[in-house]
Amino acid sequence: MRIHIGANSEGYRLATDLRGLLEADGHEVHWHAAPAYDEGDDYPGIVIRTVQAVVADEDAGLDSRAVLVGGTGAGEVIAGNKVNGGRIVSATAAAYVADARTHADINGLVIPAAHVSPDDALGLVSTLVETAFSNGLDDARRLVNVAEFETSGTIEGWMVEEA
Questions:
Q1: How does pLDDT run across 99-135, given as a tens digit for each residue?
Q2: What is the model's pLDDT at position 162?
């Protein structure tokens, strides 16, 4: 599988470890972080470029995922979901990643380096890679609804009004 990795300064060391493990496991890894540790690296541009690469891969019919590593992961989730087609979650438990892949077809995972050990991080990424989307009718319909709102501001032709 093609895996795009992005990391800011807080996640750089863990991302580097994950990169080596994923390459050793035979994955095609694309690195979107700095070539060397830089204390000043910040997440917005890195995350956006990483998620854009995954969405472009998906549009080309390639099986691809984003792995984003930051400190708490909160900002990375927000930035990643600003990219049209980005379906990004942060997780510290493999069961959550499996549910998110199965029912929401997530294409990216944020690993909060401040809260996850290297061994647990590899388990999270393995779950992301190994878990398939359900292709269930309700799950697929929800993805279509969100994508429609993302591009047109409507869902099935109806405006979503503020409460």
A1: 999 999 999 999 999 999 999 999 999 999 999 999 9
A2: 62
Specify the pTM.
0.93
Contact 108, 67 (CB under 8 A): yes
User: What are the structure tokens assigned to 37, written together?
Assistant: 């540790």
* Residue type present at position 92: T
Cβ atoms of 76 and 43 within 8 Å: the answer is yes
Ordered by where they begin, the domains of the chain are: 2-132 (3.40.1400.10), 134-163 (no CATH)
Q: Alpha carbon of 143 to those of 68, 84, 152: distances in Å?
A: 22, 12, 14
Residue with tokens 């609804």: 145
Tell me which residue of 85, 75, 23 sits closest to 53, measured CA to CA.
Answer: 85
* Dihedral sign, Cα of residue 142, residue 144, residue 147, residue 148: negative
Token output for 85: 């087609």
Contact 16, 38 (CB under 8 A): no
